[in-house]
């Protein structure tokens, strides 16, 4: 029996966790540095620069979402020819959790097995925890 595959999986899982932790720390440092870096651009009065072999420039991106009054938002979207934007959506994480619960308790109803309405997949993996 080849235990090497299992040992490799454990080692890779540990490395993945280390890298994820390092990435989380780096993203936090980036967030902390952003405002100061933007201020430096403003102080220098430049739109872009090259530094350390990289080109860098400030940018501003607008992100929008609907507020608490869905009805008002939909009316405004219709007024500005954006009536195609609102859609009924289902959170797949919540749906998956509810179906797993149903499967454990009484089984998944036949209606959920309709592939035109729902796509159900089983993901096989290994759980690795400190022993």
Topology (SSEs and partners):
Elements: H1 4-44, E1 49-51, E2 54-56, H2 70-79, H3 92-105
Antiparallel strand pairs: 1-2
- Overall morphology: flat
- Poorly predicted regions are none
Helix and strand sequence: HEEHH
- CA radius of gyration is 24 Å
Q: Round the mean pLDDT to the nearest integer and report it.
A: 90
Helix/strand/pairing category: mainly alpha
> Which range best describes the helical content: under 10%, 10-25%, 25-40%, 40-55%, 55-70% or over 70%?
40-55%
* Number of continuous helical runs: 3
> Separation of termini?
21 Å
Say how many strands there are.
2
Largest sheet: 2 strands, antiparallel
Across the major sheet, the strand order is 1-2
Strand fraction equals: under 5%
Please tag this protein with its features.
131 residues; mainly alpha; 50% helix; 5% strand
Write a structural description:
- This protein is flat.
- It has helices at residues 4-44, 70-79, 92-105, and strands spanning 49-51, 54-56.
- Helices cover 50% and strands 5% of the residues.
- By secondary structure, it is mainly alpha-helical.
């Amino acid at each position: 029996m080849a235990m090497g595959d299992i040992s490799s999986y454990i080692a890779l899982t540990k490395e993945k966790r280390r890298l994820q932790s390092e990435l989380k720390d780096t993203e936090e440092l980036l967030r902390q540095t952003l405002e100061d870096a933007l201020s430096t651009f403003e102080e220098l009065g430049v739109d872009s620069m090259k530094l350390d072999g990289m080109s860098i420039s400030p940018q501003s991106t607008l992100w929008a979402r609907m507020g608490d009054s869905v009805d008002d938002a939909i009316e405004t979207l219709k007024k500005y020819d954006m009536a195609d934007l609102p859609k009924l959506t289902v959170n797949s994480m919540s749906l998956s959790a509810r179906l797993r619960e149903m499967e454990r308790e009484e089984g998944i109803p036949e209606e959920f097995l309709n592939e035109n309405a729902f796509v159900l997949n089983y993901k096989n993996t290994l759980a690795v925890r400190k022993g």
